[in-house]
Amino acid sequence: MKFLSVISLCFFLCLCVHRDLSGGSNSRGSDTIDEWGRLHPDAKRWPSSNGWKGFKNVADKVHEMGLKFGIHLMAGISTQAYDSNTPILDTKTGKAYEESGKTWHAKDIGIPERACKWMDNGFMALNVTSGAGKAFLRSLYELYISWGLDFVKLDCVFGEDLDFEEISYVSQTLKEIKPSIVFSLSPGVKATPNMAKVINGLVNTYRIAGDDWDKWSDVASHFDVARDFGAAKLIGAQGLNGKSWPDLDMLPFGWLTDPADNEGPHRLTNLNLEEQQSQMTLWCMAKSPIMYGGDLRNLDSWTKDGFASTDGARAWVATGNNGGQSPQGQDIYIAFFNLSDGGATISVKVDNLAKVLPGKKLRGLQGREVWSLKSVTLGDVLSAHVAPHGCALFVFDY
Question: Residue limits of the Alpha galactosidase C-terminal domain (predicted)?
Answer without folding.
Answer: 313-395
